[in-house]
Amino acid sequence: MRNAATAFAFLIVLGAVTLIFAMQWYPAILVRTPDASGGSAHIIWEYQINQVADSAITYYKNALENASSSLQVTASIKKDAYEKSANTLIENILVQSAVRLAELTKETDALVAEKIAEYNNQPNFGVALSLVYGLDNSGFTELIARPEAEREILKTKKGWDDAALAAWIEEEKKASRIVRFSK
């Protein structure tokens, strides 16, 4: 009886570990923002990076098909999409922290709601999202609309242009503690 219970417990633990890795529910990157920006810690999960990378690859595939190109999505393009997705998520965290620290969250929520309402008024917007990016409305809001709105609000409040925002993000990255756990 004791060996059967031990074997059963082992199988349960093995199943849980397999599920965690299969669903990519493990941390990929830890970002700690600088103390001047709130000093908060954020975890970027592996599934989040892959969700953004898969969306980008879906977009690239559709663009190549529509351009009647003979180019293919290769392993190096997938790796590049993964790296750029991880970098984008890091940048989004830095911008989001600055927006929260400046107490601009309500303005951001209003801008996101306004933009989503505009998009939803367009016919077949949800279908287009699915076909072009492989996302639904909530995925689009979380991965594209909200980060863009946060960048726009931050640029407006600080009086920055795109170059100034990019320079600020690079400085924030240098001042942040970023630990990568994968790839």
Structure commentary:
By secondary structure, the protein is mostly helical. It has one domain (26-180). The chain has helices spanning 2-22, 46-66, 75-101, 105-120, 125-132, 137-158, 162-175, and strands at residues 27-32, 41-45, 177-180. It has a three-stranded antiparallel beta sheet with strand order 2-1-3. The longest helix is centred in the middle third of the chain and has 27 residues, at 75-101. 20% of the residues are buried.
Keywords:
single chain, 183 residues, mainly alpha, 3-stranded antiparallel beta sheet, 7 helices, 70% helix
Mean pLDDT comes to 89
Number of E-state strands: 3
Give the helix tally: 7
Fraction of helical residues: over 70%
Q: How is the biggest beta sheet arranged?
A: 3 strands, antiparallel
Outline type: globular
Q: What is the beta-strand fraction?
A: 5-15%
- What structural class results from the helix and strand content? mainly alpha
Q: For the largest beta sheet, what order do the strands appear in spatially?
A: 2-1-3
pLDDT < 50 runs, ≥5 residues: none
What sequence of helices (H) and strands (E) makes up the elements? HEEHHHHHHE
Radius of gyration: 20 Å
Number of domains: 1
- What is the CA–CA distance across the termini? 43 Å
Write the layout of secondary structure elements.
Elements: H1 2-22, E1 27-32, E2 41-45, H2 46-66, H3 75-101, H4 105-120, H5 125-132, H6 137-158, H7 162-175, E3 177-180
Antiparallel strand pairs: 1-2, 1-3
Brief overview:
With 183 residues, the chain is mainly alpha-helical. Helix content is 70%, strand content 8%.
